[in-house]
Amino acid sequence: MSKEPFGPLPPGDKSAVPSLADLLAAHAPGDEAPAEPAAAPVRHEPLPTPPSRTLAAPPLDATATAQTDKVPLLLVHAEFSEGALIQTWMQHVMRGPALHLARFQEGVTDLVLDHQPYAVLIQFDPCCIDAAVTLSAQLQTHYPQIPRLAIGRARHAQCMLAALRTGVQDFLDIDGSIETAQLVVRKLLSNPPSTGLHVSRAPQTAILSARAGLGCSLLAAHLSWHLQMRLGGPPSSAAPATQEKAATPADSTAKESLSSLLIELGTPGGDCAIYLNTPGEFGFTDAVNQQRRLDRRMAQSALARHGSGLRLLTLSRQAHASPSQEVQALLNRLGHYFRHIVLDMGATESPQMLKDVLPTASEVWVVCDQSVASVVWTAELLQQLDVLQIPRNRRQLIISRHDTGLELSAEQIARQLQLPLLAHLPERRRELAQVVNQGKLFTPQQKREPYVQAVEKLVDRLLADHHPEMAPPTASANPLNRLLHRISHH
User: Fold this and answer.
1) Are 284 and 319 in contact (CB under 8 A)?
2) Close Cβ partners of 63 (under 8 Å, ≥ 6 residues apart)
3) Is the four-CA dihedral 235, 239, 240, 241 of positive or negative sign?
4) In the predicted model, is pLDDT for residue 260 greater than 90?
5) So what's the pLDDT on residue 398?
6) Which residue has the higher pLDDT, 297 or 58?
7) With 50 as the cut, is the pLDDT of residue 384 above it?
8) Between the CA of residue 75 and those of 54, 84, 88, 173, 286, what are the distances in Å?
9) Is the pLDDT of residue 313 over 90?
10) How far apart are CA 404 and CA 245, in angstroms?
11) Are 268 and 219 in contact (CB under 8 A)?
12) For residue 452, what pLDDT band results from cuts at 50, 70 and 90?
């Protein structure tokens, strides 16, 4: 069966049934007469669905648009001739609002998270009855507030009975009247779900610097690895995490939870993959291009996997710029699968990448060292973030290679840049070079290493802010300790 969308009905066909847009306009509350069709096409909000997967439709008038441009309808069908017939029938019914298509095997629950539709229309046919029943039950369990409609033939009594048993709101009979189906869908669109999905997404921690060579990738690699160990612990099906074990077969990750994800977007890229000894053939650009297929199982098996269970996505050196909405849609989708995402922006030379990624970041950590040049370049970077309208309250400063013997202190730099000082990483270039040259990093077990202590404090901060159930009890919970803490900071 061809996967290309069916074309719209000829607009000049007088024998065609009234469009759903006309019905919506004619029944709009407060209208004295049917509204005239809009002279210009209505602009819909872009959704992360390719054009070939959406049925074409003529423009809607303003009344219809008010009810349909926010959330689409999703039709789930089987790849058989009956599925093609249902698509054609629904195209006649939906001559106005957009109808998005999906197949049963495409991870429909993830599409519902992405699109948050008014309703999901499910094909119930003898060729796909088991898949339809399973999907309808899953949607009822996870998203009970989203209506489900069955589509099929009423003469297939077993399909109609199976659909009703799963609790669908209605059954659209493709052998019946199109006008009746239009009235059902119009009523559905006029009463959208009162509450959204309110699905929590993984917090995103972005790390960037104004110049290369300040240790962003080393910090991101350590932070994401140590965070993985705190959120997920070592994989239950494997030995304790080692950097020599870069990947495991897909069957060993099938039941593994996804805790931390490190996305390396700096230029040139690949440093984090080298530090973690975790090469991968599936990169960030591949994820952008194949995100329609990127469900939770694919994220478990396709993404490069460190021995700790940490997943890694790297931007290749020859990568071409991806459309902004595609990048944002991918980060949104990955946020459904992981508990925390670390973004290594490094000293990126792409303002567009900053614009695509930073607005949704939970916090933006700016790395600077104790040199006048670094402070000047960081000030320019902050001005660029102002232009991009990145909220100031999300930005914090990290001083790398901190040396208490230098006159330019971390506090002075923070005041100069007007940023809150989050942390300072100790001067450990020699020690870091030594372990990196051995193909390793500082492990979470090296508690006496000053660099590990600094990273662990950052992990504690992330846990306290975003994963309080995993945060360790702190001494600051004691009132006396809180008072001493306040005195020491004043």
Assistant:
1) yes
2) 24, 25, 28, 31, 35
3) negative
4) yes
5) 97
6) 297
7) yes
8) 10, 12, 12, 15, 27
9) yes
10) 38
11) no
12) very high
Q: What is the CATH number of domain 204-488?
A: 3.40.50.300
Which tokens belong to 466?
A: 């975003």
Residue 26, C-beta contacts closer than 8 angstroms, at least 6 positions apart:
34, 35
Residue with more model confidence, 457 or 479: 457
Predicted local distance difference test score (pLDDT) of residue 484: 57
Residue 48 above 70 pLDDT? no
Quote the CA–CA distance of 318 and 287 in Å, as a whole number: 15
Name the segment(s) of the chain with CATH classification 3.40.50.300: 204-488
Which residues, at least 6 apart from 467, have a Cβ–Cβ distance to it below 8 Å?
Answer: 231, 339, 340
* Residue carrying the six token digits 């309110």: 198
Residues of the chain with CATH 3.40.50.2300: 20-190
* pTM score of the predicted model: 0.64
What is d(CA 98, CA 91) in angstroms, rounded to the nearest whole number? Answer: 9
Q: What's the CATH code, domain 20-190?
A: 3.40.50.2300
Angle value at C-alpha 435, between 434 and 436, nearest 5 degrees: 95
Strand pairing partners for 173? 152
| Token pair recorded at residue 333 | 């989708």
